[in-house]
Amino acid sequence: MNTIHHKTALQLGVAMCVFVFGVIMLRQLVESAFFIKEDRVNILLYSSQAIYFSFEKGGEVHYVTTFNADSRTAVPGGYGIYRMGALGKLILLEKNPELLKRTFSRITGSMIDFYFYPKTEEIYYGDKENIRIPSFREVFFLSSNANIFDRIYIYMQFIGKHNTDFEEIRIKKIQTGDSILLSDMTFARQYLGYFYHKSLRKENKTVQLLYKDSYIAAASMSRVIDGEGIRVVDIDINQNSNSKLKLKESPCIVKENTQKNYSRTAKEIAQFFHCILIKGKGRVSDIVVELGKMEGEWE
Question: Membrane-spanning regions, if any (predicted)?
């Protein structure tokens, strides 16, 4: 009798494990780039040099740009100016790979969907900027925010493609003494519209950003939102912020004036910036973003 009970319990345990595993895999599939991205998928490959790819889903207009290890840029979050080749060590020391997403989203003025990086504290040097297609090992075995279905989808985008299938875009570099600083402001202006999402442009939603202390953070986030094809019509001080809460404790809130389902625009902003999505009216726009703790992450 005990043997029968033990066998039954074992079967139930295995069935439960299979069920839970199936639910997890189904959730990853639903949340993968297969379904959530309609127009463009932006990918960052970080290694001895950083390479940014922007794919047009179902189209043939793909962009690529490279960043050599010796160039420097501002890292959002109050980290100051960093060499590109030292970012990998920084994110490991800080245990915060999202710094890659924020840094390169700020530079390109677009939302980085997926990033890949080696889990090493090695600091890279050099001024080479060679376009290349990521290898199977890089897509499937480097550390990343991509789940297994995302990795499969991304690898499929690269199959059969060559360097010539991508239109190369260049970011202006400013020589400051012995350093080379990337001009992200020039890049954003020069390539404004390149990374637009047609579905977001079609919704034609307007956005207002409200900050408490840091206009720089609001301006950085605005550049990324604008770069996706979403119109930011106002940046202002948040007069209604809770002064009793420390900034790092204040949630980022995306508020949309709607009685129906949330727009894709509101959902994209909330997902990318890790904000709470609620319904409510704004004074000058369809969508209001109260930065909250995101100020510290993007300043």
Answer: 12-30
CB 295 within 8 A of CB 241: no
Pick the CATH number of 199-298 from 3.90.226.10, 3.40.50.1260, 3.30.70.2390, 1.10.287.110: 3.30.70.2390
240-254 pLDDT tens trace: 765 555 556 678 999
Nearest-angstrom CA–CA distance, 48 and 122 = 9
Q: What is the pTM of this model?
A: 0.85
* Cβ neighbour number for residue 201 with a 10 Å cutoff: 16
Looking at domain 34-190, does it have CATH number 3.40.50.150?
no
- Domain locations in the chain? 2-30, 34-190, 199-298
Joined together, the tokens standing for residue 142 give: 């480097």
CA distance 243 to 230: 30
The residues, any chain, with a CB within 8 Å of residue 202's CB and separated by 6 or more, are none
Look up residue 25 and give its two tokens: 């895999």
- pLDDT computed for residue 182 by the predictor: 74
- Per-residue pLDDT tens digits for 15-55: 555 544 444 444 544 455 555 657 899 999 999 999 999 99
Contact 63, 53 (CB under 8 A): yes
Torsional sign, CA 211, 171, 46, 159:
positive
